[in-house]
Amino acid sequence: MDLHELIARGEGEELEFKQKTTHPHRISRTLVSLANTRGGQVLVGVDDAGRVLGVRDAEEELFVLRDAAAHYIEPPLTTLRYRELEEDGRIVLVVTVPESQHKPHRALVAPGDWRGYVRVRDASVQTSGLTEKLLERQQPESRFEKIPLSKQELAVIDYLNSHPRIILAQFMKLVNFGKRRAFQTLIKLVLHGYIRHHDKEKEPYYTL
Predict the structure, then answer these.
(1) What CATH number is associated with residue 42?
(2) Which of 73, 117, 136, 153 has CB atoms 3.0–4.6 Å from 149's, for a disulfide?
(3) Cα–Cα distance between 68 and 12 in angstroms, integer?
(4) Based on the domain organization, do 36 and 110 belong to the same domain?
(5) Cα(148)–Cα(154) distance, rounded to whole angstroms?
């Protein structure tokens, strides 16, 4: 896929535009969120509007990225791939971040302050303790197999086929479950890969 095709996809769960990497603290959040989710790419030298501005010094940008991956992320990201693309004399760095087999990763956002992030649409969102526990059990090589679903579990899938998200209270009402049973049902569906858990807002929500 060439640069124009990548940019045309727009920012999303697996693609981020960065005009430049200003500091390892900041870029580490993006790298962590991609590694903790489904992997993706960062285009350095492209602004939020998708315009190719290029980078002033590719070697300097690479130094910051490698520094972030090695020293501002725990455990470090050792599988990043870098390549340079040229467009009208402007250099864009394409950073490929594979989905990690060692989740959860955390980013150093301030001295002594390590935080986890996942990718939700086009944003890097801080994780909760629950999400990190789920990440530990969702390594690419050991995902849970699909399982037969109950009537209530199928009701979640049906609901999400026509709605963008569901929260715990909505699911409780949908299937007439108590809070504990409803929560356990949703987490079971997350662990088996049917739905996804998000912490983007105050109240967690679930999507397909």
Answers:
(1) 3.30.950.30
(2) 153
(3) 22
(4) yes
(5) 9
135: in domain? no
Q: Which domain holds residue 150?
A: 144-207
b/e 178-203 (16+ beta carbons within 10 angstroms → b): eeeebbebbbbbbbbebbbbbbeeee
What are the strands, taking DSSP E only, across the chain? 15-18, 40-44, 73-74, 81-87, 90-97, 106-110, 113-120, 123-126, 196-198, 205-207
How distant, in Å, are the alpha carbons of 37, 70, 129, 203 from that of 199?
Answer: 13, 26, 10, 7
Q: Are 71 and 114 in contact (CB under 8 A)?
A: no
Closest C-alpha among 149, 140, 21 to residue 92: 21
With contact defined as beta carbons under 8 Å apart, do 37 and 118 qualify?
Answer: yes
In tens, the pLDDT along 11-47 reads 988 999 999 998 999 999 999 999 998 899 999 999 9
One DSSP character per residue, 154-171 reads HHHHHHHHHSS-B-HHHH
For tokens 């030298």, name the residue: 45
Tokens of 30: 């993006």
Mean pLDDT, consecutive 10-residue stretches, the chain (208 aa), reads 89 93 92 93 96 95 97 97 94 96 92 88 76 68 64 94 93 93 84 77 84
